[in-house]
Design a protein that fits this description.
Helices cover 53% and strands 11% of the residues. By secondary structure, the chain is an alpha/beta fold. The chain folds into two domains: 8-84, lambda repressor-like DNA-binding domains (434 Repressor (Amino-terminal Domain)); 91-293, Endonuclease, Chain A. Strands 3-2-1-4-5-6 form a six-stranded mixed beta sheet, sandwiched between helices. Strand 4 and strand 5 (238-241) form a beta hairpin. The longest helix has 20 residues, at 274-293. The model has no long low-confidence stretch (mean pLDDT 90).
Length: 294
């Protein structure tokens, strides 16, 4: 039996997955369901995508159409809809953030494990303030206005507080391409501080950092992604695909999740061990320190 979702993002995800499964179980297309409910097609699409909430009245109408009549299941879905309509800590910032990124932030907070692959920059939750200040405008398609830049940093550090502090956060397994260590943002002093911060994080009992070296003998064209695992069996794993130049999105279809798990496992097998990786990162930090001294 599933536990109650703690936040609106997970509740919204459970609800939209359940509605999609119920509609498909009733052998209805989105177009046909919209016609029978006398809704616009876009409304059905947005509800199933989780980009809008659903009222109790609309939910009851959907469940009746999809032949979902079990009282316990109806009660569960109505409860999810109520939680999904609640505001969370991210609500004041959502208008400034991409929709998929907002959804991902809500999911990661309830994850039991996060598996990062990052070929471009240090993962956001591991960035120092100085590194984040340097990297945000460099990785955005256009330099964001100052207000958005400040909000991006504020959200990033709230995520760090939620995920890295305390003993009940998720297990974090991160693979960094070696190019991340070479790519300089903000100068040698900022890079040294950032890499020493990584070494500190890597010594945490629930954080594993590994470097995929240039000579690892593996080629990947994959961009940055995160695989999320959840503690409740009601919540299928998810994948967040990050992009600075196109649309980021969250995958929850089984085939997409399996593919990215396989990619992560392949990269993991080719990466340096956590201990060797921390030594390697510390070596780069020392090199940046030498540059400062010159």
């Amino acid at each position: 039996m599933s536990s109650q979702a703690k936040g609106p993002t997970v509740a919204r995800r459970r609800l939209r997955i359940a509605l999609r499964a119920a509609r498909e179980g009733a052998s209805l297309t989105q177009e046909h369901a919209a016609e029978l409910l006398e809704w616009s097609l876009s409304k059905v699409i947005r509800i199933e995508a989780g980009t809008v909430g659903i009222s109790s009245t609309d939910l009851r109408a959907s469940l009746q159409l999809y032949n979902v009549t079990n009282p316990a299941e109806v009660h569960r879905l109505l409860a999810l809809a109520r939680i999904a309509r609640q505001r969370d800590w991210l609500a004041p910032y959502k208008e400034h953030l991409p929709t998929a990124y907002s959804a991902y932030i809500g999911l990661e907070r309830e994850a039991s494990a996060l598996y990062f692959y990052q070929p471009l920059v240090i993962p956001g939750i591991m960035q120092t303030e100085a590194y984040a200040t340097a990297v945000i405008p460099s990785t955005a398609p256009t330099v964001p206005p100052e207000e958005k830049r400040v909000i991006s940093k504020r959200v990033r550090f709230e995520r760090q507080r939620n995920l890295l502090n305390g003993a009940d956060g998720p297990v974090i397994d991160a693979i960094l391409d070696e190019s991340v260590l070479h790519r300089i943002f903000g100068g040698a002093a900022i890079m040294r501080e950032q890499l020493l911060h990584l070494v500190t994080l890597g010594n945490s009992p629930r954080i594993s950092l590994r470097v995929l070296a240039f000579n690892a003998g593996i080629n990947t064209l994959s961009g940055p992604f995160v695989v999320l695992e959840f503690p409740d069996q009601a919540d299928a794993d998810a994948v967040y695909l990050e992009s600075a130049v196109s649309t980021s999105h969250v995958l929850d279809r089984a085939d997409g999740i399996t593919k990215h798990r396989q990619v992560f496992d392949r990269l993991s097998a080719a990466s340096m061990s956590p201990a060797d990786s921390l030594e390697y990162i510390a070596l780069f930090a020392a090199r940046y320190g030498d540059q400062i001294a010159q």
